[in-house]
Amino acid sequence: MSRFGLLPDPAHLLGHDEAAQAFADILDAGTSEDEIAEFLTALSDRGETMVEIAAAAQALRDRLIPIDAPKGAIDVCGTGGDGHHTLNVSTAVAIVVAACEVPVAKHGNRAASSKSGAADTLEVLGLDMERAGRLAEATLADLGICFLFAANHHPAMKRIQPIRQKLARRTIFNLMGPLANPARVTRQLIGIARPGYVPVYAEALHRLGTDHSRVVSGDEGIDELSLAGGNEVAVVNAEGVFMQRSHAADAGLPTHPIEAIRGGDAADNAKALRELLEGAPGAYRDAVLYNAAEALVIAGAAETLTEGVEEAAEAIDKGLAHALLNCWIAYK
To answer: What Gene3D superfamilies would the database entry show (predicted)?
Structure first.
């Protein structure tokens, strides 16, 4: 037995079966919390591989509580943990893309390392989290949007959360959320906070299977497409992983520094999101348009980023996105 108890020693790269068993033991309470903490720390220090990420995600998928989703539903989600404390870009993108008639099964959580997570901001806007969770399948079918609060769909994570909070550092579980969407979507825009890790993460997603997804990371280490500089983009489909670069100019948008979309607490972020949907111009709008355009291309609702920007802007300027948010909040 290794110093990690039943868990293998991460000093060596884990094969698929070994990794699958390790994460089954972790999620099924087959090993102690101290052993889990040491294992996750050692794995993070060494650097997780594509095989390990895929095995961990599959273990989480096998234990989630699923919902049914319409054909063509997508998710737009970031791993978080980038430390930039930006406004809630992916949350706004989800609303705008849904207003473009692409069903969005938004997977998210409360803030972990940021000041306001998707759930925190939506709650301040007036979305009842308990009701939104209970009616997620219905709102996705009727309105084309839902919020899948991670805690409601991943009971196996309940014992892991205190361990993660105690460690107060990035572990493989920071990467799991986007790879274990309860709606089992096969089209995704996933942002991660490590540009150099995009190919590894994308290969894990390819191993798990996807119709068309993109993994993106801004050069500044931001978990979304950044307007400040360049972006690493991995296009993932059944054929493999294809790397490319993307810049704001590719979408016909201006550049903005990261500081221009710096957020605050849930109240601040909710106010900014509401103003955005009411047509407020600026860096936040441009960041949302850029990422929404990428999501629309993934969904097959736009041919190019510039076309996607036009569609997203129209959904905002015609009040469609704002109206959708209000309908979602009022849904019973």
So the answer is: Nucleoside phosphorylase/phosphoribosyltransferase catalytic domain, Transferase, Pyrimidine Nucleoside Phosphorylase, Chain C
